[in-house]
Amino acid sequence: MSSSVEAITVLSSDGDEFKITVSAAKLSKPLNWMLEDVCFSDDCDEVPTIEVNSKTLVKVIEYCEKHAPRANSGASDSDAEELKKWDIEFMKMDVKDILFHILMAANYLHMEGLYDLACQTAADLMKGMTVSQIRKIFHIKNDFSSEEQEQLRRQHPGCSFD
Amino acid sequence: MFYFLISFLSFLILSKSFTSTPLSIGFWLNLSSSSISRIKKSSISFSFSFYKAPLSMPLTKNMISESKLDDHEGEGDKISLLDLPELPLESILERLSPAELCNMAGVCKSLRDRCQSDYLWEKLMKQKWGKVIGDSAYQQWRCHVASRNSQINQQNQRGLFGSFLWIKPKSQNGGQERRSNDSVMALYISLTSGKFWFPAQVYNRENGHAGFMLSCYDAQLCYDSKTDTFQARYAPHGRWAVEENIPWERLRIPPMDISPHVLYTSDCLDDLRPGDHIEIQWRRNKEFPHGWWYGVVGHLKSCAERGNHCCCHLSDTVILEFKQYNPGSRWRQTVINRRHHREEGNEVDGFYGGIRKLHSEDEIARWNNLWPTKTVE
């Protein structure tokens, strides 16, 4: 790959084209390998596919572009503070719609920061919720028999299992 | 070839996912990246497609399909919490507190099994109890569980004979309860709720009682979550002494796995030099349990602390000093013989037993933190 290339083009699993700057792509190990291995020069007309859907890839690239300057050069504490606030805003997304897609994409693209952020966001959603609220948010059916529910209550009297 | 590689990768990920962090996958990917680039030459649009198929593991799918809501079935591209592969799901759950994990265990069967896993609870155990729960406490817990299980078995057998029906009494339910009894989660909850008394040692027992200053005694302890302190039962001769409101800092895991009634065999006598920090067993008389007492190796009278010329380590006589006591106190100093020491003393001054030399800075620092504000008479 020639060093003059500043952005690369990739395809989402839906077949849409996306541009990502080289410095942002470096946040992901597999994308980094791609940069090293795949020919991105102008006379090379084949575009690599990333198996992440378009809706998710937009967000992942947004995250990469935001975090790339800090990851590449290091940053002051005030930058880190600002980035933390940005992360919180960034993670305000519909859980069943996209949060888990982001989590899976971060796992697949080996992006430690985004992976931790998504896991923490998911965990935070579970805090302070009743069991039935959690079932509702995450679309989970109660498959306990009343006997099993009773057994759970008996074993852990401190926990509410309603 | 490529698909073979992918399924191989997903197998590795699957097998690793039980034990490690997400980044460990990088190791496997690294290993195989050269193969990826070789394949790429024949078809440029390569993909790391284990995201799509192999990561949603068939095993998980089967387990969870029953608990997914019906209206969710049609939404092809939406991922439910239960669709997540082992590793990400675990990464989420390990960010939950004990109470939140208990709560999640009540959501559905699949989450119940995950949220009760020893893997998750061992981490929580270490965080909260790691500094006070040692091997002897685990040992006592296993005995406790075993005796409860044998009680359950006896009850079942009684039921069997009573009814004259030669059918195994609800072994499935009994089995389930037994399994959860010996889980790490059950231990954690029993400890936190104060239902399980465990062995540990208490510094400065009986709330800094002058007679126990800078000592550490074996006790049975029970946690009180309301005050975040412990209750201790000491086993002296004759009666049980009880102490309440003991803070975490005054507890430790017994450094030696021996009964307080057993004389410890010193293995450091030849190494003792002036300035060394030690703990020595002491008991009032031979019926009493030993406590461990903090002291420092002192100089012989003849030596006068002559710096490099000190020869105290060559003498068979070793001076042990307990500087929490006034210089005139009969507890201030004792003398032992390096060659023959096992247990020395009498019914008046008590008996000095085995000695362990302290090597760890932390251990020494803990003793120093407990130092009394004024010397003891």
UniProtKB/TrEMBL annotation, chain A:
What's the source species for this entry? Acacia crassicarpa (northern wattle)
Query: What are its GO biological-process terms?
Result: jasmonic acid mediated signaling pathway; protein ubiquitination; ubiquitin-dependent protein catabolic process
Pfam families attached to this UniProt entry: Skp1, Skp1_POZ
The protein's name is: SKP1-like protein
Asked if Magnesium is a keyword of the record, the answer is: no
Give the pathway listed in the UniProt entry for this protein.
Answer: Protein modification; protein ubiquitination
**What does the UniProt function comment say about this protein?**
Involved in ubiquitination and subsequent proteasomal degradation of target proteins. Together with CUL1, RBX1 and a F-box protein, it forms a SCF E3 ubiquitin ligase complex. The functional specificity of this complex depends on the type of F-box protein. In the SCF complex, it serves as an adapter that links the F-box protein to CUL1.
Which Gene3D superfamilies does this UniProt record tie to the protein?
Potassium Channel Kv1.1, Chain A
Please report the stretch or stretches of sequence annotated as the SKP1 component dimerisation domain.
113-157
**Record text on subunit structure and interactions:** Part of a SCF (SKP1-cullin-F-box) protein ligase complex.
Domain SKP1 component POZ span(s) in chain numbering = 8-67
- Keywords assigned by UniProt? Ubl conjugation pathway
Q: Record keywords: Lyase included?
A: no
Q: Which SMART domains match?
A: Skp1 (SM00512)
UniProtKB/TrEMBL annotation, chain B:
What is the recorded name of this protein? F-box domain-containing protein
The record's annotation in Gene3D superfamilies points to: 1.20.1280.50
Supply the SUPFAM superfamilies for this chain: F-box domain
| Keywords on record | Signal
Q: Which residues form the F-box domain?
A: 78-124
Statement: the UniProt record of this protein carries the keyword Zinc: no
Q: Which residues form the signal peptide?
A: 1-19
